[in-house]
Specification:
Elements lengths: L2 H10 L12 H11 L13 H7 L48 H11 L4 E8 L8 E7 L4 E10 L5 H7 L9 E8 L5 E8 L9 E8 L4 E8 L18 H8 L5 H6 L18 H8 L7 E8 L2 E7 L4 E9 L20 E2 L5 E8 L8 E8 L5 E7 L17 H8 L3 H6 L2
Antiparallel strand pairs: 1-2, 2-3, 3-7, 4-5, 5-6, 6-7, 8-9, 9-10, 10-14, 11-12, 12-13, 13-14
Helix pairs in contact: 1-3, 2-3
Length: 425
């Protein structure tokens, strides 16, 4: 299944991705990184880069990017009669379907016109009438080796959280890449250029380069290329992808895409993100608790106040320690009212907190990866998850035999009374 088809399919079943069980906190950070990388190794449903951005954006359903399909507890109710193209039924998300004014063949022709001299093969395309949205994916050969490339066209709120997520460079704590820039162009469009890898541990040197533009009127063009005829499953065919970042910029900013984008219904305005918790950041508190360990902290990074990462190095190799704190989510739709089921076999402490510890292999396919964790459910419903890995990131090659912190130390840190002062009992 090509990248753009997987994207569309993931959009349709995004509701299946909203679940709290079995998720490690590092995935929350990786989701942002994978938005910019053409990867399918997501722990959530589907898993393409844009799909993960949409999964992580609360306004996606309301603003027409997800369609009406999909299952799971968060699925939006569907009507017996599907609405006409470009029209939303009452109570349903805005349709992503255009009138079909621009066909798959026309979009393929535009791509050929914008590419340098070469040949396209294995072309798969969709026009603006398709329920999954317009796209083209193909194998391109400029005579120096075959490469996979593709693009998708979307309408989004240019001032919304989704646009911000798509254009933001990922943290190097969670994602390995060579370069990433985001800038505002003279016409007000915002451009994101990225050079990274399909496999962050470099077990195969498949490079993934990406260009994304979001215009003031809400057009988004997302293009990617790899130095292999397939993103996965085929050997590297050339040292780098065929198009330079300057050529990728010219591709996504071309006005030749505008007829197709204008045929798509405009996205509505996204709801504002809820204000985050005020107070000390979780990573800062964890860093304070670790001072007695006297282990050098070589990097600290935060996704937000309640999700952060520390990279520790005791001289025997770098080790990622990640922390997420989730406050009582009884009022959040699509999530369980409490975490009680996850902690039914946990140890109960004198203060009523429940504790789980675990040693397991990593879940990102990295050879030798070890993942140790401690989870605490506080009496007030707040859940704290602390993990340690024997590598600098959860997806990179291992740097040591075991994580720098033992499971026992993780448990001590997770149950520290210090958390009560910030998050309550």
């Amino acid at each position: 299944m090509p990248f753009e088809d997987e994207l569309g399919e993931a959009l349709r079943r995004t509701g299946d991705g909203f679940t709290s069980e079995g998720r490690d906190l590092v995935d929350a950070g990786e989701r942002r990184g994978r938005r910019m990388v053409a990867r399918r190794r997501a722990a959530m449903a589907g898993g393409s880069a844009l799909a993960l951005a949409l999964i992580g954006t609360a306004g996606a359903y309301a603003n027409g990017m997800l369609g009406s399909g999909g299952g799971g507890r968060s699925n939006v109710a569907s009507s017996a009669e599907p609405p006409a193209p470009g029209v939303s039924a009452p109570g349903q998300p805005r349709s992503r379907v255009g009138t079909g004014a621009v066909s798959a063949e026309q979009l393929t022709g535009v791509l050929k016109q914008l590419l340098p001299q070469g040949t396209l093969s294995t072309v798969e395309a969709r026009g603006t009438e398709h329920e999954l949205g317009p796209m083209v994916s193909a194998v391109f050969d400029d005579g120096e080796g075959k490469s996979s490339l593709g693009f998708g066209l979307y309408r989004i709120d240019p001032k919304g959280a989704m646009a911000e997520d798509m254009l933001e460079c990922p943290s190097k704590t969670t994602t390995k890449y060579d370069s990433c820039t985001s800038e505002t162009l003279a016409d007000g469009s915002r451009l994101h250029l990225y050079k990274g890898y399909v496999f962050p541990d470099h077990r195969a040197d498949v490079k993934s380069w990406r260009a994304i533009v979001v215009t003031p009127q809400g057009f988004m063009v997302d293009a990617h290329e790899e130095n292999s005829p397939e993103e996965k499953g085929a050997p590297v065919s050339r040292p780098t992808p065929p198009l330079t970042l300057a050529q990728m910029q010219a591709l996504v900013t071309s006005p030749l895409w505008h007829p197709a984008l204008n045929d798509l219904p405009a996205a509505g305005q996204e709801n504002e993100r809820p204000a985050g918790r005020q107070g000390a950041k979780a990573a800062v508190i964890l860093e304070e608790l670790l001072r007695t360990d006297a282990i050098p902290i070589v990097r600290r990074d935060e996704e937000h106040a309640d999700l952060g990462y520390l990279v520790l190095d005791d001289g025997k190799g770098k080790s990622l320690v990640s922390l997420e704190i989730q406050v009582d989510n009884a009022r959040k739709p699509g999530e369980p009212a409490t975490w009680a089921d996850l902690f039914k076999d946990a140890e109960t402490l004198p203060d009523g907190s429940k504790v789980l510890t675990e040693k397991r292999d990593g879940d990102k396919g990295v050879p030798g990866m070890v993942w140790w964790k401690a989870e605490v459910l506080r009496p007030n419903g707040t859940r704290l998850m602390l993990s340690a890995f024997n590598a600098e990131t959860q997806g990179s090659a291992v740097t040591r035999k075991e994580p720098v912190l033992s499971v026992e130390r993780l448990k001590e840190l997770a149950t520290s009374p210090k958390w009560a002062s910030e998050y309550g009992q």
